Amino acid sequence: MLNRIYALVKKEFRQIKRDGRTLSLIFIFPVFLLMLFGYALSLDVKNVKIAVKNNDNSEETRDFIAMLESSSYFNVVGYIRSEHEINSWLDEKKAQCVVVFPANFTEDMRSGRNVQIQFLVDGVDGNTATVIMNYVTSATRFYNNRLTQEYLQRTGIKTFTPIDPQPLFWYNPDLNTTKFLIPGLFCMILITTGVILTTLSIVREKELGSMEQLRVSPMSSIELILGKTIPYTVVALFVAFLTLFISNLAFGLEIKGNYLILFFTTIIFLIATLSLGIFISSIADSQQVAFQIASVATMLPTFILSGFIFPIESMPWPVQVLTNVTPAKFYIIILRAIILKGVGIEAFWKQILSLLAFAVFFTGIAALKMRKANG
To answer: CA 325 → CA 107, 189, 270, 278, 321, distances in Å?
Structure first.
């Protein structure tokens, strides 16, 4: 049995080495996806284009504008002269936010009256508008605190703060969305590469007619599956190492958890995904069809249903049930727990069991279909 599996594994490695397209898929595709998504896919909003309608034009308003400009989140793109121009700046997308200072801004502030600054935000993109409003609100609060402290020091009044909240963000203190997204991206690269490579490998045997030779050989269905999946498990592990290495170099991603647990959970995930690839290859008869099925079965569910970008808890209940169709959902939870939180296996043992169940289910179905095909 071991000799037959070893012979098939050896043959698969030679096939991978000879096939230039497969090699490019292994080496170039993961790096391309990581760099493209890592730099392009971010939920952060930077360089918000701000236009200013300054009806007061005092030292205080200019100080406020200078504070906004000193931040990397804002970019003051121009000054508006009349009220009628405000709509055109927003309509033509020359500005995402317009700051309007009232004419009596400095007078009211110096006399102790409440001062209101108006922020007009382009709300076409609701999420971006919410982020921009949070940014300008935080900036205004910071400026307000600075003025209050200066006034109290100048008048000699001691401050008393009954409740002083001290928020602290665990696991990702700078709220960098790239670090949040990279585990999901890492998962998507592995599932896409693993499933497509395995699927094309078996379907290619069908097209070349060599599958019939394997079927009439003494090799059983389980031996055939093991011989086909072991080489691609090794290749996918290499892709995983390469992706993590580049993530560390390019995006500063550090693994806080246990490397050994990450290694074993990655192997379990790969077995689950490769079993899906074998199942797809058992129902497809051409490489073109197999590639299309593998792409739809991996990329779309991973992108939408795995929690990669959209939180599963916010989805309707039926869609939350549907998310269990992809192993990426469970692996992303494991990855974020190990890489970002640094927690142990007690935090994600249910996800490991789900991946094992997924692997057993699809490997069993694929073995049954192959046995049926062998007659």
So the answer is: 63, 18, 16, 16, 8
Partners of residue 97 on adjacent β-strands? 50, 121
Q: What is the pTM of this model?
A: 0.78
- The span from the CA of 78 to the CA of 64, in Å, is 15
- Packing angle between helix 20-40 and helix 221-251, nearest 10 degrees? 40
Q: How do beta strands 118-121 and 48-54 pair?
A: unpaired
Phi, psi dihedral angles at 163 (to 5 degrees): -130, 120
Asked if 135 and 45 count as a contact pair (C-beta separation under 8 A), the reply is yes
Q: Quote the percentage of the chain above a pLDDT of 90.
A: 11
Count of CB atoms situated within 10 Å of the CB of 153? 10
Q: List, in sequence order, the alpha helices (H) in the chain.
A: 2-18, 20-40, 59-70, 85-91, 105-110, 126-155, 177-208, 210-216, 221-251, 259-283, 287-305, 317-322, 328-336, 349-374
Greatest alpha-carbon span in the chain: 95
Instruction: Indicate the helix (H) or strand (E) that contains 48.
Output: strand 48-54
Residue 98's SS3 state is: strand
93 dihedral zone (left: phi>0; alpha: psi -120 to 50; beta)? left
- Give the number of other CB atoms < 10 A from CB of residue 356: 14
Q: How far is the CA of 324 from the CAs of 92, 328, 355, in angstroms?
A: 43, 9, 10
Query: Of 195, 192, 188, 178, whose CA–CA distance to 328 is shortest?
Result: 188
Per-residue confidence (pLDDT) for residue 262, from 0 to 100: 92
pLDDT computed for residue 363 by the predictor: 79
pLDDT band (50, 70, 90) for residue 135: confident
Q: CA dist 116 to 63, 93, 99, 111, 177, Å? A: 16, 25, 11, 14, 32
Please state the three-class secondary structure of 144-164 as a single string. Answer: HHHHHHHHHHHHCCCCCCCCC
How many whole angstroms separate alpha carbon 180 and alpha carbon 336?
8
C-alpha–C-alpha distance, residues 111 and 302, integer Å: 58
Q: At CA 13, angle to CA 8 and CA 19, rounded to 5?
A: 120
Strand partners of residue 120: 98
